[in-house]
Amino acid sequence: MFANWAINAQKEYNVPLTRDGQATPDVPAHLTETLGREAAAFIRRNAGAPWMLYLAFNAPHTPHQPTAEREQKFAAVADPVRRKCLAQISLLDDAVGTVTQALAASDQTRDTLVFFFSDNGGTPPSLGADNTPLRGNKGMVYEGGIRVPFVISWPAQLKAGSVYAEPVSSLDVAATALALAGVPAPTERKLDGVNLVPFLKGEASGLPHPNLFWRTGGGQSYAVRAGSWKLVRNGKQPDELYDLSQDIAEAKNLAAAQPEVAARLSAELAGWNQQLVAPLFQSPQGGKADAKKPKK
């Protein structure tokens, strides 16, 4: 496991970095570049043996803090916030390249399964991102908040350059890794993910997920997708329905024109939500985490 560099999420950015659970005085010149180098070193050290690497870059994330040299390469971008955002993404690209180069140099590319994806869509334009033509941004259940790049590489098993068009989820990574490692999935609870490899290889028919669901903002916003249909629920506002095959920008609300579809997806969303624990993060209903907070 990769546990060399970590940030204490509870206190955000105001705590020391840790290495293997211990605070380290060795502050890197730039965390994005350091994470790439540390990951590459891990890959080289473990060549010839099975390994698993979880590499969670925190870039691009505000506040954008690229190196001065990298920001200068985007000097033609007038907006200083956008310029810093693009420069930080460029640093991330190079750090990922450092990792893939280590795989190639140690002759591990062919037999290594690589997942690359973002955890959410870009921030609002005021913070440097541009999700055009998608609607919305990070924190929203519109496509701009949840549709992200998702790339899988496994040269020994998957055809290079192929495209799989059906919806998948980051939750599928764990289920796929467990299946390929021959490790049984947990029995005390059901995993939401599925093994993607049979679908990517054309060995499994149908969809990996009949439905995909989202809940965010402590239970303020929801979405469910079934095929090309997507239902969006924001707070106490009326449900919205979109046909993503015709309207990727989610500009034409079809809830009134397709009441049967809207009712079906609403029922499926309610059934899914009943299976979940109370929101523990940003919970307006007072989830378990909120109940434990001491009174001021």
Note down, in words, how this protein is organized:
This protein has a 4-stranded antiparallel sheet with strand order 5-6-7-8, covered by helices on one side. Residues 1-10 and 285-296 have low confidence and may be disordered. 22% of the residues are buried. It has 8 helices and 8 strands. With 296 residues, it is an alpha+beta fold. β6 and β7 form a beta hairpin.
Which helices and strands, and how do they pair?
Blueprint: E1 18-19, E2 22-23, H1 31-45, H2 68-72, H3 80-105, E3 114-117, H4 143-146, E4 150-153, H5 172-181, H6 197-200, E5 212-216, E6 221-226, E7 229-234, E8 240-243, H7 259-273, H8 288-291
Antiparallel strand pairs: 1-2, 3-4, 5-6, 6-7, 7-8
Helix pairs in contact: 1-3
Strand order of the largest sheet: 5-6-7-8
SSE pattern: EEHHHEHEHHEEEEHH
**Poorly predicted tracts of residues:** 1-10, 285-296
Question: How many helices does DSSP assign?
Answer: 8
The average pLDDT value, as a whole number, equals 90
Q: What is the C-alpha radius of gyration, as a whole number of Å? A: 21 Å
Helix content: 25-40%
Oligomer: single chain
Biggest sheet statistics: 4 strands, antiparallel
Structural class: alpha+beta
**Which overall shape is indicated by the principal axes computed on the Cα atoms?**
globular
The share of residues in extended strands comes to: 5-15%
Record field, number of beta strands: 8
Amino-to-carboxy terminus distance:
39 Å
